[in-house]
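Class, study these two lines:
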Amino acid sequence: MEKRNLLENSASFLARKSGQMLNIGKLKLSIANLENEMYNLKAELGDVVYQSYQDGSDGSERIDEICVNLAAKDEQLQDMKKQVEDLQEK
């Protein structure tokens, strides 16, 4: 009876840890995708700034739009990193 409880507890622990590892993996993949999106937005921001410089125009509306998008993505990124950290502590 004692061995059975030990096996059940071990199986339960392994299942819980496997689930945590799966969730951490999914979050890390999402983090990588989000970082890639942010990288692309930063490149686009640079293009807009340079194009505005070349044209002598004011691209501030598009610049603001990109910066707001970047700030939102950065907030998501920080939340995801915190979730990973919380899962790793368990």
